[in-house]
Specification:
LRR-containing_regulator; Leucine-rich repeat, LRR (right-handed beta-alpha superhelix); globular; repeat; LRR_dom_sf; alpha/beta; eleven-stranded parallel β-sheet; two-stranded antiparallel sheet; 15 helices; LRC34 protein; Leu-rich_rpt; 416 residues
């Protein structure tokens, strides 16, 4: 049974009982939560991230977390907990693991960029063997290593509740990626996973091969992040072969890899036949004009499902960028496109300015905006992109619906 919304009062009492000094940041957030009239009916996410405040705040420590979870133990209306960018260690992970084993209402937990290591990862992953409420977990940036990632891979063989798991920037290795891919051939509940920036010593792309095999049989995964995998054209070809037989994946992130125009040729052929993929992130590769033209031909003639494309920083000149712009005249589905960081010339400025003036491309759906100097149209950069809120989100409110800056705003995976 949940207590009435008196979180701050219970927090003050718990601090006294445990002889723990109050954290003014936690106290203020709980006071704000108590003022929310809908807290007991709609639930609330406590936003205790330590990085997005105009005035520095005392970050949450392991001891602070111990007091906080004692308050939340009976607060069933707290369905989300954002503890990103704080000072939590393996001791805090132990506290959180115990809380997850006992709590039956928490749906969202963000622990990104704390100091949780391998042993903390083992405890949290172990808690999820029995937890049946959590649907979204972010471990991003905690140095759990390959062994820590293995604990989460093993958890995926057992847990049937979790829908979104973020293990990006966690220093996982080859063994973890392969084990995760094998686990996802059995797991039928996970909808999205972030495996960005593993530490790979091999250049043979074994991980990409295993992920491709998984995609042939997995029918539940909607969102897959494979950024910074040192993926080359061979790996892209393996993924495309698998995606011909996959009818569930809607968001594919291949950013910051070594994909050239030859690899994009396989993606272009895939886009002509695939009827599922809606978001494709090729940011920071080297597809050049030839690759951009492969994509534009697929988009202009055959593909009617892709809604967002990022080709930021890909050594594309005006020839390739204009081809992409022209494809949008015949393709009415593609609504978000990001091109900054390429060689933008006058023809590019004119082509994208025309799309925006005609209303074919909304300024909130691209990362460029036209302006005029001495009668010449130029493009300025906008801070939009598919990864804008991957590491940071406004504390005061959720990202505006329809904004071109987060995958969940374009393709819903799980709400919290």
């Amino acid at each position: 049974m949940s207590v009435l919304p008196e979180l701050h009062l219970h927090y003050v009492q718990a601090c006294r009982n445990l002889s723990q000094p109050e954290n003014p940041f936690i106290a203020r957030v709980l006071q704000e939560a108590d003022k929310n009239d809908e807290i007991s009916t709609k639930g609330i996410t406590l936003k205790l991230a330590g990085n997005n405040h105009l005035v520095p705040v005392p970050r949450v420590t392991d001891d602070d977390l111990g007091v906080l979870v004692s308050v939340l133990g009976q607060a069933a209306f707290v369905t989300g907990l954002d503890l990103a960018y704080n000072l939590l260690t393996d001791a805090g992970a132990k506290t959180m693991a115990t809380f997850l084993q006992e709590n039956s209402t928490l749906q969202y937990l963000n622990l990104m960029f704390n100091d949780i290591g391998t042993s903390g990862a083992e405890l949290i992953a172990g808690a999820l063997h029995s937890n049946q409420s959590l649907v979204h977990l972010r471990m991003t940036g905690n140095k759990i290593g390959n062994q820590g990632g293995m604990f989460f891979a093993s958890m995926l063989k057992i847990n049937s509740t979790l829908k979104k798991l973020d293990l990006g920037d966690c220093d996982v290795g080859l063994q973890c990626l392969i084990t995760t891919a094998i686990a996802l051939t059995q797991n039928k509940s996970l909808k999205a996973i972030n495996l960005n920036r593993p530490l790979l010593s091999s250049k043979q792309e074994e991980t990409t091969v295993h992920i491709g095999r998984m995609l042939r049989t997995n029918s539940s995964l909607v969102e897959l992040h494979l950024g910074k995998h040192e993926m080359k054209n061979f790996g892209v070809e393996r993924l495309c072969e698998a995606l011909y037989k996959n009818s569930s994946l809607r968001y594919l992130d291949l950013s910051c890899n070594n994909i050239s125009c030859d690899g994009v040729k396989f993606l272009g052929e895939l886009l002509k036949r695939n009827q599922t993929l809606e978001i494709l992130d090729l940011n920071a590769n080297r597809i050049e004009d030839v690759g951009a033209i492969h994509l534009s031909e697929a988009l202009a003639t055959r593909n009617k499902t892709l809604r967002a494309l990022s080709v930021v920083s890909n050594n594309i000149t005006g020839k390739g960028l204009v081809a992409l712009a022209q494809s949008m005249h015949s393709n009415i589905t593609l609504s978000h496109i990001y091109i900054w960081g390429n060689e933008i010339d006058r023809s590019t400025c004119a082509a994208f300015s025309e799309l925006i003036e005609l209303g074919r491309l909304q300024q909130g759906c691209t990362d460029v905006a036209p302006y005029e100097v001495d009668g010449q149209v130029l493009l300025a950069e906008l801070s939009h992109g598919l990864a804008k809120h991957r590491y940071w989100a406004p504390r005061c409110a959720a990202v505006a619906p329809g904004a071109a800056n987060a995958s969940l705003e374009i393709v819903a995976v799980s709400e919290y």
